[in-house]
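anyone seen this seq b4? input:
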Amino acid sequence: MSAPFSNAVRRVAGRPGPAAAAVRALEGVGAATLADHVDRLRSGGDLVPVTLPATSHALRSHRFRMYSLDDRDQVVRSIRRGGWMGFEAPLPTVLTLLVRRWPDTFLDVGANTGFYSLLAVTAHRRVRALAFEPVPEIAELLRANLAANPQGGRVQVRAVAIGEHRGTADLHLPPAQADGTVETSASLNPEFKERIERVVRVDADTLDGAWSSAGRPSVSVVKVDVEGAEPKVLAGAGELIDACRPVLSVEVLRGADLLVLDGFLDQHRYVDVALSEGEAVVARPGVEPDDLAPNHLLVPRERLPRLTVTVLD
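predicted toks r here
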């Protein structure tokens, strides 16, 4: 284990303790400021609260917390500095609205340190999540973040790489970042970065296989962010797609196999919606990468009218 990973894991190991019960009690009566104070004390100032946008009929906002790892977690750093819109806007808002509209099982493929899994189970109390994170060190940080939240118990972690085959696979990891930021990117695609520092052999599964192993729950939303290997994930998800017809959030980077993505849209009757901070472009003739709008929703055609009213209006 490299030094940055090792230090980060030690930093959060064993954090949830007796004070966690006090925090939950305070939050239960709406005393968010006091709960934040207790969090800061029990974590040495490292636990950062993330507040979701409130619904119009909510009495109060709902929150989750993540370890900043001394400001080395890229997601927490972005939110700390830029607020709710500081990280991958507008995707967090869109996914919050989606899981509130369809509160079934949420699949988080490439879960990283847990931001989107925690977002989903915080947005609606009926939502459960399956979080797939194959990098062993990052999976430890993910579990620590889940353990810092009572709703984290509704997230099941599987330390496997999701792709088009079951068994094992080579996971490619880039060098550690020079500024000490915890490097969380990894891919089944050996060309996703100019430099690869190490290759790790990990357990692998298809999304169909993982879904079947979980008891084939009703899945409403799937987030896929696997650094260019998104087409591989979709290739192994046909049964799930046909049975549940979920909305898919997919990162589309330059160099992605666009023919596979376009073929997926045609085969499964999905529509591409490209997201950027200022607009959502619906029903393009084909999936196109855009450096300013890498996040796309792939939406079942029959769900598009309801999604437009729910999210994009």
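The mean pLDDT is 86. The chain has one domain: 83-312. kinda curious what u guys think
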